[in-house]
Amino acid sequence: MADEKVMPQQEEQEQVQDINELRQIRLDKLTKLQEADKDPFEITLAEQTITSAEIVDRFEELENTDVSICGRIMTWRDMGKANFIDIRDRSGRMQVYVRINDIGEEQFAEFKTWDIGDIVEIKGFVFRTRRGEISVHAKEIRLLTKSLLPLPEKYHGLKDTDTRYRQRYLDLIMNPEAKDTFYKRSRIITEIRKFLDSENFIEVETPILVSNAGGAAARPFVTHHNALNEDFKLRISLELYLKRLIVGGMERVYEIGRVFRNEGLDTRHNPEFTLMELYQAYTDYNGMMDLTERLFRHVTQAVLGTTTIVYNGVEMDLGKPFERITMVDAVKKYAGIDWNEVETLEDARALADKHHVEYEKRHGKGDILALFFEEFAEEHLIQPTFVMDHPIEISPLTKKKPGNPDYVERFEFFMNGWEMANAYSELNDPIDQRERFKAQEAMLAQGDEEANTTDEDFLRALEYGMPPTGGIGYGIDRLTMLLTDSPAIRDVLLFPTMKPLD
Q1: What angle do CA 380, 381, 385 make, to 5 degrees?
Q2: Which pLDDT does position 2 carry in this prediction?
Q3: Which stretches in the chain have pLDDT values below 50?
Q4: 456/344 Cα distance (integer angstroms)
């Protein structure tokens, strides 16, 4: 038996025929099956005793053993009374040998009317062809689902990224690497949960639809609740509700969930994305750094089998201790400016003008420091790096540094020049928090649509007393991008936000 792959005549024809004509041909085939009381859509149950990958892994044990596999026909080689088809299931592909002498003339004649894309059940025994390919020799075959639309031609596949994102189901059929990415994403989340379970955290769920969308600098989506006749917002963060649970004595909590930010789309941003936030009582941002280092190292080792990530050809080593640097020192290192010598807002603005750093009138000295960091330092933070001690102006929910009230106990974790996490020693002083909210309200009044509004219930919770707490938020999508070497966030979201075609 020959195993070499050739393009079947059917696929050659499908390249040149109009898709509507092809669909009609398949509809006609379906009609004939239905008229013969063989409608595949009436089948409710199929037998799948094993996957393709398991057959390959256990071949020595399974050779000449009967199995039942299910999957989609992806290729077809017609050799007259004997045919080879490849079917793909969730684990991979398996070659199937179908011969008229084994399944009978009537079943074989029906089989020859099937199409690439059809979903089938194959019962037969495991064997190896003369060319050494592990295969299944069919004894019984059954059509489970009729595919009414032809798949893209297999030699060119589905390459158009817009179509891949809009029709993810087709992307998953045609591009096994896409499926691998999402299996790996699931594994990443599983390993995060395993790690946090081992650290005695509990997973919780908090509201998505909220009256006050706080906890981050972002513009929310607004919707209307008809029964209550009130506007609500989709959450932009998980923070304020999780902190309420810390007040309630839960001490170690986390949530993995979707958040929504009314912002633009690019290779690292989607308006709907997955965030994980965790909060731990009786620790601070140093504890969050230690936890983050252990978490990232564990997940990378578990998912990749190594602590080295290679992204777009660049290696990042998570096996070494992560670098820790203050924002002031990062600006000094990469911009050559010592912010400790910048005494006034006027000095900061003058430096910004000199170095062509754009700022707004409402920006304070600390805001401009953050702009310098973004402009000059971020792109250099390739290896795992904690950037600590942010200016108070950009950190409304964070504890001040003792003895240095212009800065707070906050860090951002960077890899590949990307912000991967954001963490604080959480502000638990309700009086100070109210003043921070007031400052945010003033910014909102000046036109900052990303500023927070006062959350009275959260302030009430703080007045009952929240212990010293460390908290952090992780972007799950960016972590998945790094661990799957994916160039854009849309590659790791099953159904990314897309502009309507109309």
Answers
A1: 155
A2: 41
A3: 1-8, 12-14, 16, 155
A4: 34
Q: Residue 193 — φ and ψ, nearest 5°?
A: -65, -40
For residue 294, what pLDDT is reported? 98
- Output the DSSP codes for 69-85: EEEEEEEEEE-SSEEEE
| Sequence letter at residue 123 | K
Domain-embedded: residue 58: yes
- What pLDDT was estimated at residue 3? 42
Tokens of 96: 């199937």
89-98, pLDDT tens digit by residue? 999 999 999 9
Indicate whether 467 belongs to any domain.
Answer: yes
CA angle 414, 435, 289 (to 5 degrees): 25
Q: Which domain holds residue 54?
A: 9-156
Amino acid at 330: A
Residues 216, 90, single domain; the answer is: no
State whether 133 and 248 are in the same domain: no
Domain membership of residue 120 (yes or no) is: yes
Q: What pLDDT, on the 0 to 100 scale, is given for residue 238?
A: 96
Q: Are residues 251 and 193 in the same domain?
A: yes
Nearest to 83 by CA among 10, 144, 29, 152: 10
CB 68 within 8 A of CB 47: yes
pLDDT tens by residue, 235-246: 999 999 999 999
Domain shared by 181 and 152, yes or no: no
Residue 210 in domain: yes
- The amino acid present at 71, given as its one-letter code, is G
Q: Is 400 left (phi over 0), alpha (psi -120 to 50) or beta?
A: beta
Q: Which are the contacts of 349, defined by CB distance < 8 A and separation ≥ 6?
A: 359, 368
CA angle at residue 145 from 143 to 148, to 5 degrees? 120
CA atoms of 436 and 433, how far apart (whole Å): 5
Domain identity same for 104 and 180? no
pTM: 0.90
User: Can you give the CATH number for the domain in which 22 is found?
Assistant: 2.40.50.140
DSSP 327: H
- Residue 334 CA to residue 378 CA, distance in Å, equals 9
CATH number for the domain harbouring residue 249? 3.30.930.10
Q: Which of 102, 184, 80 is nearest to 485 (CA)?
A: 184
**Count of domains for the chain:** 2
Mark whether 292 and 411 lie in a shared domain. Answer: yes
